[in-house]
């Protein structure tokens, strides 16, 4: 090979580099033409931008950036020309990435997700929060002192804000928000979810667009939550945590009539029985409605006031009366469970007769309360809600006051709605004894048999939990249960859909097979039945 001088070698390098560059440009051009043949490349840029935004929302982190801007020049240009694609910012991203996104978002509405612990978020996030007119969805979580600094610039209108979620990691003992929540300040606000800090409402403003409201730990000043609710006619979900102290709970209001929340679909209340009762007494609730009430009380009067307020706010609703002009029983509770040892809980859950949404209530009996208090409480609840129609009964607890509660419940007319019974020892013995007194449908309710009359025409499921079927107590022998089901069928009673046994003992295989012929299905969980040839 001819020996080249340095000048000649450098010139050769340049010629070869030029040829390589030309070939690379040619390859890129060929790739571009090839990509143009694909159907996706023929889509309008507006449609491609919409696809990119959907892809952005369906992924986590920043993977979407590589999937949209690192494929081809066409896609990159479409992505860079779509400001809304870059409008979702969060503290999980690096500062340089956040700065680029804020710049590329132009003037589009922003979605910001901030979680802080000991320091403020990166500067681009702070800068974005200083532009309240651009904020559309905001989620803030952290200590109150940092949150107050982040929302300090929110002193003017926020016309684009639709959703605001604020979580104070510690209870805020000072106002976090620098302004009152008014229709003029937040005209498009639809979701307001604040935990650990309470917003201040201007009570003469109507939040027609607000559909979801959640406030915990602190209510509007002077307890005027009712005034605020009266201006939120479009509420679909309401979640309030009321103070547990009776001294802290007041509901002053300028509203002379109960507040009607006709669009409400879900109601969640947490607090003292008295506080929940006072709020419910000032509301008119629609039906159907899903309700969850989690409260504490230490006496019958507090719990009774809660149930009275519930009956008044729900069943007395004029909307309900217009649907049912004639009084009709409303199946409000589907489940009644009484646990024996105090501290005791009464759990009642259910729904109206036209919906499957459930109402849940938990009552905790404080330590030191006598069991007789629980018995009186159960009966008082039943007397308040005469239209109760439970479908499921769980019999558990201790023989004594609990047995009297079950006797009282089962001998009332509303026990006829029972469809499912679950019982264990010793209540299984009690229940079968009463079933043998009348296998249902033989005579009407309230005949000469008195308290021992059980009228359960709708019973479909009977389950035994940890019961010994032995010879020590004849009613619990398997043959007694077989005889009971035969008598039920003999008087025209319906076959049970399910007969269940969970960890039951001393029943033989042949007895289980005999039971299978009398019901639609036998469920067996736990140890296998005894072999027939065992002694």
What's the story with the biggest beta sheet? 17 strands, mixed
Tell me the β content: 15-25%
Number of helices: 16
Shape from CA axes? flat
Low-confidence stretches: 316-346, 348-370, 438-454
Nearest-angstrom radius of gyration? 34 Å
End-to-end separation: 107 Å
Overview of the molecule:
Helix 13 (401-410) links the parallel strand 15 (392-395) and strand 16. 30% of the residues are buried. The chain has 16 helices and 19 strands. It has a 17-stranded mixed sheet. A two-stranded parallel sheet has the order 8-10. Among the domains are: 37-86; 414-535, no CATH class. It starts with 5 loop residues before the first helix and ends in a 10-residue tail after the last strand. Helix content is 33%, strand content 18%. With 535 residues, it is of the alpha/beta class. The model is unreliable at 316-346, 348-370 and 438-454 (pLDDT under 50).
């Amino acid at each position: 090979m001819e020996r080249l001088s340095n000048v000649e070698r450098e010139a050769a390098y340049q010629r070869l580099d030029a040829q390589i560059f030309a070939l690379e440009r040619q390859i890129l051009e060929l790739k571009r033409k090839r990509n143009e043949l694909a159907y996706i490349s023929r889509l309008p840029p507006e449609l491609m931008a919409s696809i990119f935004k959907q892809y952005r929302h369906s992924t986590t982190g920043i993977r979407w950036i590589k999937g949209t801007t690192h494929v081809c020049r066409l896609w990159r240009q479409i992505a860079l020309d779509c400001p809304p694609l870059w409008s979702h910012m969060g503290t999980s991203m690096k500062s340089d990435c956040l700065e680029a996104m804020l710049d590329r978002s132009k003037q589009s509405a922003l979605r910001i997700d901030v979680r802080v612990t000991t320091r403020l978020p990166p500067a681009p996030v702070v800068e974005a929060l200083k532009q309240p007119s651009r904020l559309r969805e905001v989620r803030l979580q952290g200590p109150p002192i940092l949150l107050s600094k982040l929302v300090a610039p929110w002193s003017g209108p926020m016309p684009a804000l639709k959703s605001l979620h604020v979580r104070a990691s510690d209870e805020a003992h000072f106002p976090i928000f620098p302004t009152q929540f008014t229709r003029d300040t937040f005209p498009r606000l639809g979701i307001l979810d604040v935990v650990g800090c309470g917003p201040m409402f201007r009570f003469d403003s109507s939040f027609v667009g607000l559909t979801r409201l959640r406030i915990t730990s602190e209510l509007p000043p002077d307890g005027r939550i009712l005034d605020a609710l009266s201006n939120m006619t479009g509420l679909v979900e309401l979640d309030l945590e009321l103070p547990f102290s009776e001294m802290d709970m007041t509901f002053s209001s300028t509203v002379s009539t109960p507040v009607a929340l006709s669009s409400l679909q879900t109601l969640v209340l947490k607090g003292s029985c008295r506080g929940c009762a006072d709020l419910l007494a000032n509301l008119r609730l629609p039906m159907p409605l899903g309700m969850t009430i989690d409260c504490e009380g230490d006496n019958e009067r507090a719990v009774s006031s809660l149930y009275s307020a519930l009956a008044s706010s729900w069943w007395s609703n004029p909307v309900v009366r217009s649907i049912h002009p004639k009084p009709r029983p409303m199946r409000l509770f589907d489940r009644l469970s009484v646990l024996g040892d105090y501290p005791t809980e009464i759990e009642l859950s259910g729904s109206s007769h036209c919906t499957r949404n459930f109402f849940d209530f938990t009552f905790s009996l404080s330590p030191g309360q006598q069991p007789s208090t629980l018995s009186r409480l159960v009966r008082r609840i039943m007397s308040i809600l005469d239209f109760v129609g439970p479908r499921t009964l769980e019999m558990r607890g201790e023989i004594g006051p609990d047995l009297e509660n079950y006797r009282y419940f089962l001998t009332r007319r509303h026990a006829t709605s029972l469809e499912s019974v679950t019982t264990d020892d010793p209540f299984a013995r009690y229940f079968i004894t009463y079933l043998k007194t009348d296998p249902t449908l033989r005579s009407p309710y309230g005949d000469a048999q008195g308290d021992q009359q059980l009228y359960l025409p709708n019973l479909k499921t009977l389950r035994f939990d940890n019961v010994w079927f032995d010879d020590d107590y004849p009613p619990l022998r398997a043959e007694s249960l077989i005889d009971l089901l035969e008598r039920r069928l003999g008087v025209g009673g319906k076959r049970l859909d399910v007969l269940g046994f969970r960890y039951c003992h001393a029943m033989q295989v042949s007895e289980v097979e005999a039971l299978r012929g009398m019901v639609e299905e036998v469920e067996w969980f736990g140890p296998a039945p005894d072999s027939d040839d065992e002694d």
